[in-house]
Write a structure and sequence with these properties.
Chain lengths: 343, 343
DNA sequence: CAGCGGGATTGAAACCATTCATGGAGGAAC
DNA sequence: GTTCCTCCATGAATGGTTTCAATCCCGCTG
């Protein structure tokens, strides 16, 4: 049951049909649609607009992309869209892209190198105009993009891949501020919950933790590694609680982990921040609603997304604009001990 | 600094280049690439494969889409990707689509009719092969898709739009089970936190709540409406706590709201589930890690996503396969009072 | 040996929009 | 009246791929 249109067009309407209907050439239709530099007489334009409306003409994006060599699309590769940090990022990137009339193709690598490779290949084949990479498990695959001359932006990627621009946050500085804050509360044994590090380089957050401790002349607290998820954090929390020198404060490298840690601590009947203080990294909304509310290092996700998109499709598109670093901000709430709360 | 390839191809490599290099016609290349029905001699195939590898040939998706009239892409329109329910949905839809070689274009309507319309238009112009609509604010805009002959699937959309297939969960049944569970705990004054209903029809969850109450011969508890967000839930919680006949149990129509409600209750120094029991709808992971863990009605998001995608690009693509309903499941945890916990 | 069948390969049309070079008409200036 | 210029409009080429119809070549059969 199609809706009763005034004039039901059979099959797809092309710009040729419009031209015929309006009694002009196809070129004129093109000029009208795109408002090109070429002038079109007002009367003609009206005729064409009329024809477009009557026939329900809809430009064919594929043909346009073929001719123009641009799909008005950007790709995004993230580990997992159900992780709040990345879902917020996707949203922000989509917003920024839509602002410029670009569409966003979303792909999840799920921590799999093979999947990541497949996605990158696929995006390259689709002639996307740029790719935001927030998950780079295997750098050699980036040559796919380079070969296809597709600009890419790396997000929060530690060791800079040569030839690619990047956008991110100073992970080490952010982590240091948080750990220093914990130190300020008098803690001397501060544990760390990290992701399993895949890169050859040390994660910035781990560096920041180390720096803060050594600057304060403290010994390293226990380190636990695991997935950046609530479940991973839960397991990490249990191990930290059971560790020989149980820390009195924990810095978690993501809010998700901190949420899991909080649960492990609650279940053990230990109080936060009374017995153990917690701080983490990301600044997600969820951290604001945990109990107690998490003190966390905020990343300016929106600004980062906008910068990434603009590096891809802005005026200076794909010029490998080097590395943009954004400032973090410590959101002080209850889990660090700044406000006494009952748990 | 491009990587040193054996043979750096200048500019994009087309199938013509491959044909020339391999000493065959372009048609053969096409057959080799697509493994069409036409047979290609093994020797020839090897030559072509070789040429493809050496030249680094990459088929042009735009040209392919133009010729085939299919972009191997599906669109997804959701209210907000930073809402965990929808971010999980996006992920699941992306997975299901990628499984079939399709890419996913993600768009957020942010609750704006204008944005939703723009996105639907844009998707239609891009000749996506199907659209999953999880946010339908304004049904008339759906004709855009109908006109463009693009199949669409509605997700959890109450009143069925004629001519569109839909996938969802029996919201009323799910809500009823949860509310009945609360009644089973002896509660007689059960409040409701709902979204602001935009549809002319009553939301299924509200219906389920009403049914469970009337079946048990109970009076309606207080109703509060607000955004499906943590902040919305927080405000709702405060209002429920302050209401004249403060309920001893609350059913929230989304986990996000329940999380906010939990915070409001905590801050008021009231215990959950001791003084007020809480149950909600969605079955998100976040609900498992709240404190106390939320009893919630699980939606089989993955199955729904797969069904939606398969309705669009499966064997019976876009045949308006009617309405598929999936079963919900009550995940019983602590917030309803089934396990005594200290808060 | 002629004819035939069939598998492998080819050439060219079609898909739809963009854009350049060209053409024509009309007005203004001399 | 002629020339020149401006302003609009047009035809045709272009982009990369798919696929039909046609061709070619080889071997087999009668």
């Amino acid at each position: 049951m199609t809706t009763p249109t005034v004039q039901a067009p059979r099959g797809p309407v092309t710009r040729k049909d419009v031209a015929r209907y309006a009694g002009v050439s196809t070129a004129v239709v093109s000029y009208v649609v795109n408002g090109g530099p070429k002038k079109v007489a007002p009367a003609t334009e009206a005729k064409v607009q009329d024809a477009i409306r009557v026939l329900g003409y809809r430009p064919n994006a594929a043909a346009r992309a073929l001719k123009l060599g641009s799909s008005e699309t950007i790709g995004l590769v993230i580990p997992d869209n159900s992780n709040p940090f990345f879902s917020l990022l996707s949203h922000a990137v989509e917003d920024a892209a839509a602002e410029c009339g670009y569409a966003l193709v979303l792909t999840n690598s799920d921590g799999s190198v093979a999947k990541e490779r497949r996605h990158i290949r696929n995006l390259a084949a689709r002639q996307v105009d740029g790719v935001v990479l927030a998950s780079v498990l295997f750098e050699p695959d980036l040559v796919e993009l380079d070969d296809a001359d597709i600009p890419a932006v790396l997000l929060n990627h530690g060791d800079a891949a040569p030839g690619f621009s990047s956008v991110g946050v100073d992970l080490a500085a952010g982590a240091r501020i948080a750990v220093e804050h914990l130190i300020g509360h008098g803690h001397t044994n501060i544990g760390l919950a990290m992701g399993t590090n895949t890169a050859n380089d040390l994660d910035g957050r781990e560096k920041g933790w180390l720096q803060a401790l050594s600057d304060a002349g403290l010994l390293e607290g226990p380190i636990v590694r695991g997935p950046f998820s609530r479940a991973g954090g839960y397991a990490a929390g249990q191990r930290l609680l059971a560790s020989a020198n149980r820390p009195t404060a924990i810095f978690a490298s993501s809010d998700m982990q901190a949420i899991g840690i909080l649960r492990a601590i609650h279940e053990a009947g230990v109080s936060v921040p009374g017995d153990i203080a917690v701080a983490s990294f990301d600044g997600s909304v969820e951290a604001e609603y945990s109990w107690p509310a998490l003190t966390t290092v905020e990343q300016p996700v929106k600004a980062m997304a906008e910068a990434a998109v603009s590096a891809l499709i802005g005026a200076d598109r794909g010029k490998s604009a080097g590395h943009q670093l954004f400032p973090t901000k410590l959101l002080v709430r209850q889990s660090c001990g700044c406000t006494r709360t009952v748990t």
